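TICKET #2291
ISSUE: user wants both folds in one file
ATTACHMENT 1:
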Amino acid sequence: STENRSEVSEYKQEKKQFEYELQSQKQEYNEAKENFLKIKDRIRAKELDSNSEEAVNATKSYLNSSINYMIAQLSNVESNMEYSNGNETNEKIIVIDEKIRLLEVEKLNVANTSSQGELLVVVRSVRGIWNDAEKISLSSAGQTVSEKIGEFLEKSESLSERLGVEIKDLKETGIDTSELEIKLTSYISYIKSAQEKKVMADSLYSGENVTREDMRTANNYLRQSLNDISKANKLLREIFVKLKNYETEENGTKSRN
C-alpha cells in the first residue's frame, strides 16, 4: 500500500541519516583516540605530566568522542527497534533511551573534571552503562534478523506443500519424479533445521541475565539458520528449473499432437 511504501521510504531516509551520523562520530572518535595515544606516549617518555592541561584535555576529548560514538550507535539501534515487531521492543527502547540519557550526563561529568583520577571515575561509569546497553543492542539486532528468518520460514512451509502437490501430480502422469522428491525432502529438512536453530537463538535472546557469551551463541545459531536457508534456496532453484523443464516438455508434446 501507499502508506507502507511511505513508511519504508521514511525508514530508509532515517537510516541514511543515522549512518551518516555514525560515520561522522566514528571519524571524530578515531582522531581523538590518535591524539590521546600520542599524548600517552609523551607521558610515558616523561615529556609531559599526566595532569597537565594538555594531557587532561586530550583525555577529555577522547572520552567525549567515545561517548558521542556510543550515543550514535545506540540511537541507530533505537531507530531499528522502532521499525521492529520483536518481543518487548517498547521496553527495550525505553531502556536504550535511558542509557543514552545516562551517557549525556557523563558528558557533563567529563566537563567538570580537572584530573586524570577524576576522569578514570567517569570512564568506569561509562563502561558500565555501555556494557549494559551493548547487551540490549546485540539482543535486539539478533531478534530483528530472527524476525526476517521467521517470515521466510513461514512462506517456505506453504511453498513446500504446494511443491509436494505439483510433484505428486507429475508422478500421476507417469513421469519419474524420484529426483524431485529427493530434492524436496532435502529442502524440507534444511527448512526444519533452520527453524530449530532460530528457536534456539530466540530462547537465548529472550532469557534473563543474558551474557555476552549467550549473545555470541545465539548469533551463531542464527548464522547456522541462515546457512541452512541458503542451502534450501539452492535446492529450491534446482526444483523450479526441473519443474520448468517438465512443463516445457509437456507443452512441446501437446503442440506436436
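ATTACHMENT 2:
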Amino acid sequence: ASANVALIESMQNPEEFNALYLINSSKFCLISKLAQTPTGASSLLQSDFFQILSNFTFIDVRPITSKVTSEPSQNKMRTKFLCDQLASYRQIFMPLMECCHNILSTLTVTHEDAVNLVFHFILSHLDVFIDILGPEFGKINLEDLQEIKVVCGLISSAALKGSVDSSCILFQNNAASLLENMRKIHLQLLKCLSIFGDLRNWEVVVNSVENVQQKEHIRANLIEILSYLLSYVSGHALSSQNLKSGDSLNTKTSE
C-alpha cells in the first residue's frame, strides 16, 4: 500500500519519481530474469506476485484519462494527470507487463493456474487495459504501439495457455461479472484486429514520422501487434454455437 501511494505521489515530482524508479527498476530486472527460467517462473507463479499486481493501484492511475472517479470499495483510484506524465507511468507499467509475459512464455503450453492469475490481474485493472487497447488511431505514436504490443502479447499468451476457471477462488467476488468483463476484453481485441489488420492504417502511422529508423520500429511493432491479435483470435474466437448456447468466452465452469 505504501509503495502504491509513494509512486502515485511521486508522479507529481520528477526527481522523487526518478529515485523510486531506480529502486523499482532493479527489482523488475531481477524478476524478469527469474521469469525466463522454468524454476523462476514457477516460483513467481506460486508467490504473491500476481496477487500483488491485482491490488497495485498505481496501475489504475494512468495519465491522460478524461475523467476522475473513485471506487473506495475496491481500493482503486482513477485520476487525471498531465500528458507528459504518461512516459513516467510507462517506465513502471511496461516492465511489469514484460515480466508477466516472460512468466507465461517460460511455462508449459497449458497452465490453468497461470491463466486464472493473469486474467484476474487484467480484470482487476480492466478500465486501464481497455483504454490502452482503444487509442485514437490517427494520433497514435511509437510509444503507444509499444504499450499496445505488450498488452496484446500478455493477453494472447494467457488465452493460449487455457481457459479461465469461473469456479476459481480468485473470481468468487465477481463471478457474476466475469463473463461480461471477458467479453469486453474480447470485443476490444476484435476492434483492434479490425484496425491493425488494415494496411492502410499502417501507412498512416508510418508516414506520420520522417525518421527512417523510427519508421522501421513502427512497422516492427505493428507486425508484432497483428501477430498477437491473430494468435488470440485464431485460438479463442467465439463461435456462433457458443453465442447461442451462452457459454462464456475463454472461461469454463466446474463440472
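RESOLUTION: both attachments delivered.
EXTRA DETAIL ON ATTACHMENT 2: The longest helix spans residues 212-236.
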